[in-house]
Amino acid sequence: MNAQQQRHFDALYQQHLDNLILQGKRPATVDVYSRAVRRVSAFFDCPPDTLTTEQLRAYFRQLIHTHSWSTVKLDRNGLQFFYRYTLNKQWTWLNIVKPPQVRRLPDLLTPHEVGLLITMTRQPRYQVFFFTLYSLGLRLGEGLNLTTTDIDAHTMQVHVREGKGGKDRRVPLPERTLAAMRRHWRSHRHPQWLFPGIGTTEPMDRGGVQKAMKQVCRECGISKRISPHSLRHCYATHLLEAGLDLRSLQVLLGHASLNTTARYTQFTAVKSAAATRAVNALANQLAVIWEVS
């Protein structure tokens, strides 16, 4: 882009960011929707308000070949928002790309494999973090953003703040998890974060956690497609196997709809039991050898 085009793009982009914030979009949504505008502008090296339907077709044809359908969908939604709120244009051209409706079943680990994965994690901060994700059923971002004030040792609960959809929830805190958290906190004594990054004021890096898990899976000989989020799937499935009822699991996971939780019945038969007893039993059954900080 020449200097004039760049100034025009900068003005449009800032307006796009302002609209995202004014519409109450969460930081993660702001990030991906703004990236969509930057990506399509870089692809054509021009401001995005001049693009034709045929150019957008070409862009998405290329994107489908180089990125996942998840990225394609996010770019489509981001550009839809841009056209609607920043350009005040109709976006009938969005019908040119429709990601397929695919519902894949996630790979799961057995309790033995979860224990092996945690045991084989040689860095103490990652070891405790993986145990925490599993025993609390947390999403990756929820675990990374845990603060010391979120842990209530009196009620043995954890306050999960601003989960998916901006919703808070409380989950039972197994005694073994509390002990691991305390041991880990004493190794760094950060005033805010339970899992702080090294040499930074922010929590641990998301990418670093993901890479660490991939490395441990290779060392364990686990060939399944496993990510930190897989531990949440394992938590749900193993609790159902332990006898927890579906409604209690819905509350623990923070799902708005029971239908979302019900997908875990594809993995196991559902029985009934007390949630707190089942969660404590879940944490206590792992054969974990802790690394000393």
TrEMBL record:
PANTHER family: PHAGE INTEGRASE-RELATED (PTHR30349), PROPHAGE INTEGRASE INTD-RELATED (PTHR30349:SF64). GO terms for molecular function: DNA binding. Keywords: DNA integration, DNA recombination, DNA-binding. This is Tyrosine-type recombinase/integrase. One of its GO terms (biological process) is DNA recombination. Pfam families: Phage_int_SAM_4, Phage_integrase. Gene3D superfamilies: 1.10.150.130, Intergrase catalytic core. Residues 4-87 form the Core-binding (CB) domain. Residues 104-277 form the Tyr recombinase domain. Belongs to the 'phage' integrase family. InterPro entries: CB, DNA_brk_join_enz, Integrase-like_cat_sf, Integrase_catalytic, Integrase_recombinase_N, Integrase_SAM-like_N, Tyrosine_recombinase_XerCD.
